[in-house]
Amino acid sequence: xxxxxFRSPVAPSDAGVWALQFAALPDDAARLARVLQGxxxxxxxxxxYGITLSQRQRGEPHLRGAAEVLERIAVRDxxxxxxxxxxxxxxxxxxxxxxxxxxxILRSKGIAARAxxxxxxxxxxxxxxxxxxxxxFDAAQGRWVLADAQIDDRQRALFxxxxxxxxxxxEKFLVAGDAWRLCRDGRADPQAFGVLxxxxxxxxxxxxxxxxAALNSREMLPWDVWGxxxxxxxxxxxxxxxxxxxxxxxPDRHLDELRRAYDDPRIAVPSTVFNxxxxxxxxxxxxxxxx
Length: 291
Description:
Blueprint: H1 29-37, E1 40-42, H2 55-59, H3 66-76, E2 91-93, H4 95-108, E3 113-124, E4 127-138, E5 143-147, H5 153-159, E6 173-175, H6 176-184, E7 193-195, E8 198-199, H7 201-214, E9 224-225, H8 238-249, H9 255-261, E10 272-275, E11 280-283
Parallel strand pairs: 1-2, 4-7
Antiparallel strand pairs: 3-4, 3-6, 4-5, 7-8, 9-10, 10-11
Helix pairs in contact: 1-4, 6-7, 6-8, 7-8
């Protein structure tokens, strides 16, 4: 198994000079998750913590790079990262920001880690919700582990989660390729996969592309749209997504193919993507284009 591509922070997960702060942080994922829970807050769960996001915080979920996130944290509070911030002073992001930061820290410590885009089964009954988690290699166990750093005790109670979110069972979180295969085989309803009122095969296909990009260290925003993504099922290149789903379901087995697949403009992150939440094209910073 080649872990080298997942041990060095590159592209969005490269924190630059801000990574110097990571040396003082613990080396295990569970303790790092607690650190991140004191630094970040999910933009859609602010009310759970009794706060209203400031105007500044409302724009933070659209920041793409670890360096940008850390700069915002430092400008607001210059204390070491190990000091938890009050909820109203935390960086406001989404699930992907917890993943990005955990990947950045683990990789800076030489621990293989990667972002996975897919669907969580632990938020809404009978529904697989658009979600990202971290996958890191546990050397002691000799296996990849799914870790959801977003879920703190308050969210655990809110969603009624009864399993270890630092070792998420594979049936509780489906990487996008697994969700695609289930639906293509007729074993699951595509309308059960999505977020809010957006669901369907097109949504799953887009997440397969996002997961393929993330496995190439391009951890984009969940609402960034580019390349082979479509809002209409009829426009999906089924053969293309079938192949990409097969590669992303077993990335270590198909690592070289995944690298070659990223040359395809339907997967590769271009210099401009469409931010579907803000409804506008946005230039992507150089971090998303350099390896």
